[in-house]
Amino acid sequence: MSEPRVWVLDAYRAGERTQLRALATALGWPFEIKRLCYRRFGQASALLLRNDLSGIDRAASDPLVPPWPDLVLSIGMRNEPVARWIRDRSGGRAKLVFLGRQWADPRHFDLVITTPQYPVPERANVLRNALPLHGVTRARLDAAAQLWAPRLAHLRRPWLAVNIGGTSGPYAFGRHAAARLVRDTLALARARGASLLVSSSARTPACALDAFAAQREVPMQLYRWRRDDPDNPYLGFLALADEVIVTADSISMLAEAHATGKPLYMFDTGAGRFSMRHDMHRAAGEAQAARARARADADRADHAAGALAYRALMRLGWSYLSRDISRLHLRLVRSGRAVWLGDPPTPGPEAPDTDDMARATAAIRALIPRG
Known about the structure:
The mean pLDDT is 92. This protein is an alpha/beta fold and 371 residues long. It has two domains: 6-129 and 356-365, Rossmann fold; 138-340, Rossmann fold, CATH 3.40.50. It has 13 helices and twelve strands.
């Protein structure tokens, strides 16, 4: 039997593109990446549950022409009508696999692979993984370690990696969060006698990088993110670090750090009643603990209009439109997979060592006819 033809309808967010490529690569089948250019207000096609291409600029997008695929992998509301249109053109043969959260009910797809932060309805074709899919493998870590170890040899051990995201959803990341991140990171580094391996991302605010650059107390390698940089040390830092700090706004970076098997600390970018830890207690139904956490927090929160609007949508509007990452924080902390930076470790039940990628690829392979 020939291998199935696979199309990846590309994502419009960096973390989601990483998930799609990792899944396509893990399947082991050849695949084509289809990049789409979206029209302004093109979401209407998805909102109306159409099967068409009215939401994209066909001339500016990669061609969608026969031979039609056997499998379509994608993520994101704007890609839903496109994927269904492809299935129609294939005579119903193409299988649609979507990641994350969808606008349409899961019955419109052959398989939905999701994670705890999304309120996806229970359906027979919904696979719930503990963490987002990623491409961090032992082989890639070993290769990155071999490349970066000589470049970091001047820094004393142990090494503490710090992976910084930025404003996301209801959590603003500004100068207050940046100052707290440096403060709490240096406290852990002093306790360990460690050097820092600091890595940034496309969303990282300049104030966070400037705050780290200004510190002279702890030896450090600082990387300022650049688009399509072949010398990005992110994977090397993960591979070589003895412990890892991740700003908890980035679920993808949390998943990648967890894959290393090293101690993982989550940094709460919020504060008070706007903190992630406060929201985690709310997600667990622990209203009293949430209020106590907010009262005990003397730090100041950053605020941004977009983050406040997102929070209002979650609390007062239709929660299905948003994602609640506090659900994933809760699972990581209560399972013992991670601890909040600055909090004392709390023993949790032993985290089951599940292989989310293996479950996902097995479910997809079951969709493709054999023989």
